[in-house]
Amino acid sequence: MLLLNFSHPLTPAQLARLEEIAAQEISRVIEVKTQVDTQAELAPQVVALADACGLSPQEWQAEQILVLPPALNFVAVALYAELHGRMGYFPAMVRTRPIPNALPPQYEVAEVVNLQAVREQARQKR
Length: 126
Known about the structure:
The termini are far apart. The chain is of the alpha/beta class. Helix 1 links the parallel strand 1 and strand 2. The longest helix is centred in the middle third of the chain and has 15 residues, at 73-87. Helix 2 packs across helix 4 (73-87). The protein has helices at residues 12-22, 42-51, 57-62, 73-87, 115-123; strands spanning 2-5, 28-31, 65-68, 92-98, 107-113. 40% of the residues lie in helices and 21% in strands. The protein has a five-stranded mixed sheet with strand order 2-1-3-4-5.
């Protein structure tokens, strides 16, 4: 499985936990530095983030991809729209959460959310 990381780098322990939750090996991690200019138009910046992954059209459609989204909500939403367009479906999302009382602040992998399944469930409520 391929992990597209638009957030902070994961530690070896976090990657191991992610593999445990996903029940698959993470064969490759693509780290994408996610800095946006909040004064500039968002859509072209999001296209550049997706382009920075370096995947071919076939890889976008054929690879098993997990996404650790950026923390900035409007960037994450626009990025998922871009990825859906390239992939034809919503990729699964890695959710992290803060570890209570950790100093300095630390995060753990909380879950993998199947966004395509969320979408399919929502369609039944039309």
